[in-house]
Structures are given as C-alpha cells and as structure tokens.
Amino acid sequence: MNLFKTLSVVVLTFLGSAVFAQTKTEKINVLGNCGMCKKKIETSLKVPGVNSADWNVKSKVLTVSYDSSKISNDQIQQNIAAVGYDTEKVKAKDEVYQKLHSCCRYDRTAKPTKAH
Ligand SMILES: [Cu+2]
User: Ligand 1: distance of its center to the CA of 69 in Å?
Assistant: First the structure.
C-alpha cells in the first residue's frame, strides 16, 4: 500500500511538471498598420520559447504560442514594444516609434484594448 502511494506521488509529480511546461496560446492586441509591421512584430518573437507568432493586419490581434516555462506573456509584449509597436500592456518608446517607416506609424490615439 505504501509503495503504491509513493508511486502515485511520483507519477502525479511527473504529470504536474509536464502540464506546467505546456504550450500556451494567447491573443494579444498589438497596434500596427501594414505587412511591414507584421513582419517586424513577428520577427521580434523569433526567440527561444516562442513556437509561433501570427499578427493579423486587419484585426490587430497577435496569436502567439509559447512555452510558459521559457518566456512570459510580459516578455513577449516587451519584445514587440522594443521594435516600436504598442501592445495592450507595454508601450513602445517614442524614439523607437519615430524611427518606424512613415507608413508604419500607426495611430497611437487608438488605445489597444484587451483581446478576447
Ligand atoms: Cu507597417
């Protein structure tokens, strides 16, 4: 009986860590304008831990799939802001935004809202 109990704990611990390392897929609102923005946003997420990133030009919603044990949602948003794009949580620095191609300078007055 005790052996069974020990085994159960081991199995449950293993399952628990497997679940923890699971891939998360989330949607994040990111401001931008065109295909060039799409390329920059997605390239900023070619980092370890991110499995896929797809930004929709029309809806301005980024669908990102990542390993939450390697990278956080906050870090992902910081990477995007670092290349000039405002996310729902992190705002890009003005100087980075100003360096964007003229067609890419999206309307910053439109506040990004939480994606559903
Ligand atoms: Cu653009």
Answer: 31
Higher pLDDT, 82 or 1: 82
Decide if 60 is inside a domain: yes
Task: Report if residue 93 sits inside a domain.
Answer: yes
Task: Note whether 81 and 91 are within 8 A (CB).
Answer: yes
As a whole number of angstroms, the distance between CA 106 and CA 101 comes to: 10
Q: Could you tell me the distance, in angstroms and rounded to a whole number, from the CA of residue 2 to the centre of ligand 1?
A: 63
Residue 23: in which H helix or E strand, if any?
Answer: strand 23-29
| Ligand 1 midpoint to CA 86 (Å) | 13
CATH number at residue 88: 3.30.70.100
pTM of this structure: 0.78
